[in-house]
Amino acid sequence: MSKRKRRALSTQVAALPVRRASDGRLEVLLVTSRETRRWIIPKGWPIKGVPNHIAAAHEAREEAGLLGCVRKGRIGRYQAWKRLHDSFELVEVDVYRFDVDSQFDTWPEKGQRSFRWVDLKAAADLVDEPGLAKLLHELAGNEDVFAD
């Protein structure tokens, strides 16, 4: 029996934008993908020479105009199919907590995406990516991750 060498999955980075609503509930921001208009979280490819959590914050700024503090430690990981020009690729997505302070009036992808603030359970129900939905359900059951 021959051993087949397994190719490592490409990695993307994502920000999970969070804030506390006026009633104290935790909310997350979802954005739509540009092409299919599915609900997702801001994500993209790592940036050479830039730590992954900072690259995730860059995606939150570019896709949703968010300003805030990104946490260095990954809060989760999931797998998703990335639509490329002529194919699909399975990627691993590392997710970083992004505490939102404010939103700019304008940003690079404003008008190309919609956004919505929802609680974690609603977010898990809205997203189409099974791995992201599972991660959001897990986080909803463990909001201690967002205690500080």
Overview of the structural elements:
By secondary structure, this protein is α+β, with helices and mostly antiparallel strands. 21% of the residues lie in helices and 41% in strands. Strands 1, 2, 3, 4, 5, 6 and 7 form a seven-stranded mixed beta sheet that branches. Helix 2 packs antiparallel against helix 3.
Structure summary:
By secondary structure, this protein is of the alpha+beta class. The protein is built from three helices and seven strands. α2 runs antiparallel to α3.
List the main descriptive attributes of the protein structure presented here.
alpha+beta, 3 helices, 148 residues, seven-stranded mixed beta sheet, globular
What is the fold's blueprint, element by element?
Elements (H helix, E strand, L loop, with lengths): L9 E11 L5 E7 L6 E2 L2 E2 L7 H13 L1 E18 L4 E16 L11 E4 L1 H7 L3 H11 L8
Parallel strand pairs: 1-6
Antiparallel strand pairs: 1-2, 1-4, 2-3, 2-7, 5-6
Helix pairs in contact: 2-3
Global mean pLDDT: 90
Residue windows where pLDDT falls under 50 for at least 5 positions: none
Proportion of helical residues: 10-25%
Main sheet: strands, sense, barrel: 7 strands, mixed
